[in-house]
Write a structure and sequence with these properties.
single chain, mainly beta, Jelly Rolls, 6-stranded antiparallel beta sheet, 2 helices, 38% strand
Length: 345
């Protein structure tokens, strides 16, 4: 049996499901199709990352991204835009996390990039954290990465017998009995907020951490014992978590930073919410680029009572902002951050 993913969303009205009333087989079938549609659509891996750093010809630059892969993901689409800094013949070989490569010729425009769309098949399905390395081997002329994004390839069908948690609609035909076994996968994914609609990436910010050897040229740095924000705007980046329960007013965001430090002392990394405060920091004590342990913080979730979705009110001052913060500690330490990744558990 297969669990077909519909080409468009299937919705059931509230009137079809009333307390104390029998549920029709067609209603169960539609609910199964809706679950397949949601699970089969995939998720953002990298919403968008603009680096605008000049990459010198003759070198290979590497960037790091990090997200929690959905088990239903079998392939990713990469969207990469490159622009030449100067005129002349140029190209870049991009190496993707699974090891595949693609050659991209950057645009001559200087402002508008040439875009490449690349499908990358995954070596295995999994639902674990994924460290993603993307490398750029630049030849001919200096170039910069105008934009980079990635998302799961939508599925045409799911497997009902594995952790795909697909629902075979043929078991919900009109006139057939409805059994718990037939709807097991539906109950499994509907009762787990992380199975349906989980935001695998709120943000992915990255600059090159290597040009053949570790480089600090592009990284954010701090040589002070007081916290400062990684993102240029002092508030950070607007963010709302998903409303999992009817009574929820907040949700949990998890983040990691790809960083290192020089000198003595102990650096610190944490994330902060403009509405909820600062999270608990983690130490940075290593001298070579590595991911920090996970740090978490509560952020406002969507508010369905307000047309703009905000919890605290209806004005721009009520927006919750995500900011990554760090300091270098004492003893002449400098902390360097080349990537920040945040997602929803």
């Amino acid at each position: 049996m297969t669990a077909t993913v519909p080409s468009k969303r299937v919705d059931e009205t509230v009137l079809e499901i009333l307390g104390g009333r029998a549920v029709r087989s067609i209603t169960w079938q539609n609910l199964g199709s809706l679950a397949n549609w949601i699970l089969g659509q995939g998720a953002n891996v990298i919403p968008y990352n603009t680096q605008i750093r000049s990459l010198a010809a003759g070198s290979t630059y590497s960037c790091k991204y990090y997200y929690r892969q959905r088990f239903q993901a079998v392939a990713r689409v990469w969207v990469i835009g490159l622009v030449k800094v100067t005129t002349g013949s140029a190209s870049t070989t991009v190496t993707l996390p699974e090891g595949g490569t693609v050659d991209i010729v950057p645009s001559d425009d200087g402002t508008q990039p040439s875009w490449a769309f690349v499908v990358e098949n995954l070596s295995a399905q999994k639902e674990t954290d994924s460290d993603l390395t993307v490398s750029f081997n630049v030849t001919g002329e200096n170039q910069y990465v105008y934009g980079l994004a990635a998302y799961d390839v939508p599925r045409l069908s799911l497997d009902p017998s594995t952790a795909d948690t697909g629902i075979a609609q043929t078991t919900k035909l009109p006139g057939e009995p409805i059994t718990y076994t037939d709807m097991f996968n539906f109950h499994t994914c509907a009762s787990s907020p992380t199975a349906i609609g989980r935001r695998c990436s709120f943000l992915q910010w990255a600059v090159p951490y290597s040009d053949g050897a570790t480089t600090t040229t592009y990284a954010w740095s701090r040589s002070s014992g007081t916290y400062a924000g990684v993102f240029k705007d002092s508030k950070g980046i607007p963010l709302l978590t998903r409303k999992d329960l009817r009574t929820s007013t907040t949700g949990t965001v998890t983040a990691r930073a790809y960083c290192w430090k020089s000198g003595g002392g102990t650096g610190k990394f944490r994330i902060a919410s403009s509405e909820q405060g600062e999270g608990t920091a983690t130490d940075v004590t290593w001298a070579s680029p590595a991911w920090t342990p996970e740090v978490t913080m509560t952020f406002d979730c969507e508010n369905f009572s307000n047309s703009n979705g905000l919890q605290g009110g209806t004005t721009i001052s009520n927006v919750d902002y995500f900011q990554a913060q760090a300091h270098s500690g004492d003893g002449g330490t400098t902390i360097y951050i080349a990537s920040v990744a945040a997602w929803e558990d």
